[in-house]
Amino acid sequence: MSRVPSLIGWRGVSLRVPEEWTLTKVSNEGPNGYLRADSLEGTFVQVRWSEKKGLVSIPDSFDNYVRDLKKTAKKQRHEIEIKMKPRALAGVRRTADAPMTYSWSSDQKALGLIYHCGECRRLVIAEGVGPLDADLGIAAPILSSLQEHGEGGWNTWGVHGLNALVPADFQLEKHTLVTGHVMLRFRSRSRMLLLQQWGLANVALKGTDVAEWYEYQERNRLGRFTYRRDR
């Protein structure tokens, strides 16, 4: 598949993946983060990031990551082969970020890159991973769409079709990611921002309207406030 239409975003890190892929793993707030999106065929993309201040050596950071890969492979009793500058990832990232591209092969195989953004200070490791017989041709367009931070003081969020730009000073406080319900709750001091998406609307709204359904669904929380409905 050559198209990568769906937006995945978490804590300002965003990328575009095939429409049928699903966000499956995410991290909470903090200096380090992780997201993973999976296909139905067993191929997935994963992004790790950490905030690094001062001078950052990409080669040294990559060496540390390789040591972790080898340690994991050894525990699982697998050999691992690592190669640099795979042709499939040529030009996948702007040179200003001093990216290093690589591939590894063990019980699975991967195409990845590592770089450091001088603006947001995030060290990023991103990979397309799949079974040994998988076609990783989709990795290059996915990784080339990667953005490691938002723009203009706004962070990108994209979860199961719920896409939003949230002010960067709002931190994720709680989240729910289950079939039929996505909830992201943010807080900035005394201010709260709540984003929700419900599935199966034809079932949930049967015999009622959106306003009545929402008031019943959120009755415990809304009961603490005085509010009015604007139609």
Q: CATH homologous superfamily of the largest domain, by name? A: Mog1/PsbP, alpha/beta/alpha sandwich
Average pLDDT reading: 89
State the secondary-structure class. Answer: alpha+beta
CATH class of the largest domain: Alpha Beta
* Element-level helix/strand string: EEEEEHEEEEHEEEEEHHH
Largest sheet: 7 strands, antiparallel
Q: Please state roughly what percent of the residues sit in beta strands, choosing from under 5%, 5-15%, 15-25%, 25-35%, 35-45% or over 45%.
A: 35-45%
Number of helices: 5
- The low-pLDDT segments are none
Q: Specify Rg, calculated over alpha carbons.
A: 20 Å
- The second-level CATH architecture of the largest domain is 3-Layer(aba) Sandwich
Separation, N- and C-terminal Cα atoms: 43 Å
Provide the helix percentage.
Answer: 10-25%
In spatial order, strands of the major sheet run 3-4-5-9-8-7-6
CATH topology grouping of the largest domain: Protein Transport Mog1p, Chain A
**How many discrete domains?**
2
Total strands: the figure is 14
Shape category: elongated
